[in-house]
Amino acid sequence: MYQARTKVALFYLISALFVLLNAFFLVKKHSMIINALPLAFGIILLAIYAFDKLLYLIVLFTPLSLPLSEIAPGFTFDMYLPTEPLLFGILLVFILKCLADRKFDRDILIHPVSLVIYFSLFWLLVTSLTSTMPLVSFKFFISRIWFVVGFYLLTAKLFDSGKNIEKYIWLYTLPLLIVIFYATFRHLEYGLWNKQAANFVVNPLYNDHTAYGAAVAMYLPFLFGFSFTKIYSPGVKIFVRIVLGILLMGLILSYARAAWLSVIVAFGVWVLIRLKIRFKPLFITFLVILSVVLVFEKQILIYLERNDTESSANLTEHVSSISNISSDASNLERINRWSCAIRMFEDKPVFGWGPGTYMFNYAPYQLTADRTIISTNSADAGNAHSEYLGPMAESGLMGLVIFLILISTVIYTAVHAYARTNDKRLKTLVMSALLGLITYYIHGILNNFLDTDKLSVPFWGFTAIIVAVDIYTRKIARTEILPNGLG
Question: Which long-range contacts (CB under 8 A, 24 or more apart) does 82-87 make?
């Protein structure tokens, strides 16, 4: 009864404020703000009465969100609209709800994956306090919190008992089709096999063709899973396969070599899981390969330096250019950025330079011999190009270790949840989420995009799928064992 009265009182309070604001801006003749107020009011009501609908709305808008710099240039900061302001609002409402209700799903809160995420946030806070640029780092820290709250904690709650997962996937996939059509249509103007055009045809929806390729790669496993799982009707499968074909076209025309490589690795992981190969021989094989690489490091580098194939419109040559570290400007610039990250880490190995500060501090660490034709000293040309070396430079050794622990915990959880359930639907969803994340774990070696909404939606959302299914399958397993134990 008390909660009902509170909601009614809150409704009237917000209505009164809305009327007052409307009157104020009408007097001041700010017509654009007046027109936006009803939309803002509707969003506030959604946040209060239909939290899940607002979250779905954000996921739907994410592939089509635009940077503030494109809409209103001149600001000293940038963000994606409308998603990031909505996520900040969700964070505030989430905090208020937690303070009022003093509870949240305990199984999600104490899950091992959640505990690793908390520790990562704690370390981000610590390294923000010791940052060389505290304002930049705290902005990075707050944005990471709203991504985690919106796309992991609240999303995992939405997936309770395995519900709503397909909806979450399709809400991103369908607008992603619009992005693919938009990019392909623009690509046609320059010729579909024009590799250089791939770098900018997806702008401003995605700031980089590699981010676009990474997003497409992450959703491919779900489309493959939906296509070949028997639980879906023939009509649904036909539609899914059409969408799958469009996504494959988008992946190819993205010319994102890292995305192509990540899909191949994900397929290899799928084969290993399907063959039920035990972890111990895999780990031993990995150690043997690593040892060989370390022992023959010089010979491998000499061999790679012989490859002078440049990235081009020819797909075979473009794939071959992945290992070109002698003349390919893109590859050489990545090596330059990685080298800078390592040198920055050597100067500040414990706390790093501060979250989000790499791009402002790396310039002095560039060696003349490492610079390329696309090197720059300005802060507007990207970051460390690595989801592993970036955190190491910005948050010290612990930043890298925590990310590796998170990856290991998620993979371990996914494999066990997959093996535990006999439900074909849940098996498909967990496997697809894991393979989608694998594509990003691999892609993260060459690029990093977790500071954007475009890749945070699938990264944290797929992690939430694995956690939610793990919790649900554990509950099912307990209910099946308990009666036998009592009997």
Answer: 83/58, 83/453, 84/143, 84/146, 84/453, 86/43, 86/54, 86/57, 86/58, 86/61, 87/58, 87/146, 87/147, 87/149, 87/150, 87/453
E-strand stretches of 231-379? none
433 and 466 Cβ atoms separated by less than 8 Å: yes
At a CB cut-off of 8 Å and minimum separation 6, what does 66 contact? 80, 81, 204, 205
pLDDT digits (tens, 9 = 90+) for 162-187: 899 999 999 999 999 999 999 999 88
- Give the DSSP letter of residue 81: E
Q: Which of 48, 83, 49 is nearest to 65 (CA)?
A: 83
pLDDT tens string 314-325: 445 445 445 444
Distance CA 210, CA 257 (A): 8
* Tokens encoding 345: 């880490």
pTM of the model: 0.85
Tell me how far the alpha carbon of residue 65 is from its chain's centroid: 15
Is the Cβ–Cβ distance between 439 and 259 less than 8 Å?
yes
Which H or E run includes 80?
Answer: strand 80-81
- Structure-block tokens of residue 107: 């199984």
Task: Round to whole Å and give the CA distance between 487 and 171.
Answer: 46
Q: How many C-beta neighbours within 10 Å does residue 114 have?
A: 20
